[in-house]
Amino acid sequence: MLKSRFGWKSSAIGITAAALVIASFTAAHDDNEAAAASKQAKNVILFVGDGMGTAQRDAIRLATVGENGQLAMDDMPYLGLIHTSSTTPVTDSAAAATAFASGVKTYNGAVGMDANKKSVKTIMEYAKEMGKSTGLVTTSQITDATPAAFASHVEDRGKQSDIALQYLTKSKVDVLLGGGEDFWYPAGQPGGFKDGQPDDPSEKSKGTQGNLVDKAKSLGYAYVKNTTDMKKAKNGGKLLGLFANEEMFQQRPEGEGDIYNPVVSLPDMTKKAIESLSANKKGFFLMVEEEATDEMAHQNNAKLTIKAGQQLDQSVRIAKNFAASHPDTLVLVLADHETGGFSIEEVDANDESGDAISKEDGPFAIAKSKMNFVVDWTTSGHTAVDVPVTVTGTGAELFSGVYENTGIFTRLAQAMGVKLPK
After folding, report:
1. pTM (2 decimals)?
2. Can the peptide bond before residue 262 be classed as cis, meaning omega within 30 degrees of 0?
3. Rounded distance, CA 66 to CA 61, Å?
4. DSSP code for 34
5. Which residues of the chain fall below pLDDT 70?
6. Which CATH architecture has domain 4-416?
7. Annotated active-site positions, please?
């Protein structure tokens, strides 16, 4: 337990305080729904900090702006708390994203499918039917579980080339920016990022649906491989950017080659996606994911978990700046689940620290102070704890309360004015 003299508390106390705040929001939830019914969000920007639970957000805050500062992702007027289970207590990213995108609980590994392996319509597909533009941005493979659940339907998240093909020919996503080039080219046909590069010799083209980059070009997509070309791409058109063989970082056991240094930053990808999609007068739906907050937590690497979270927060600030001049925009920041059993503790040489990768990380400086903290871990996997969602903009009041992850879908639909089948 952290001592009160530091002015900041353990995750357990922080969650209790959050629950009290949420309770006050929930008391007025009916009034909020009535007020929101007369307004619709023209634009939606949904941020997913994969694996980023309450404690991760606290660590990012302490390291970035200190005890009394606020991250862009926290400086929002509405707060909710999300239960994260899939059809089992501990979810994976595919089932969690499917809950957000389609409002159903499903099995781990399912993308856009219910528990009976039937396709379920996504909020992004509803947005497309409304004439809105759509976009997916991630530091993972663009075909990885979280983005895939918003715009594809497969029984197994591993079918990433099938997902890519569906993006192009079924859901017709307008802007696709991320990694995972290996799934867009068939084996033996490397693309802009050569097979077997020194930082990970195992990465190589492995697509199963032919040359999907050429297919994208034939369908009118501008294809880019670096920041300069991405920024030059015409706004309002179809855009495909693939910036790595696999993820846009390297995750390995801490100190053994783990790297977070995307060749195109998440803030730059976010800014370009918003600029391009906002050319549509009917609005847009954009999902932005920071994957390294999860992958680095799997490796119990607090330093790079925090670094990735800082990049996410910069991206959120870009979205909020857009929303400030476009008040019909809804911005949400949430997580699909928590990873690592992450906890914040004070520096104590007598405290049990664990071994191997589960050793305490730190100490980390608390910004604008002389104090510091350490991070401890309980697992290298996911946990079943609730995660926060912070929200601002048109319809934000709908998201207060404590609810299942499927409630994100129903609230998004209400905020956007989507008429769901009964």
Report:
1. 0.91
2. no
3. 6
4. H
5. 1-38, 198, 252-257
6. 3-Layer(aba) Sandwich (3.40)
7. 93
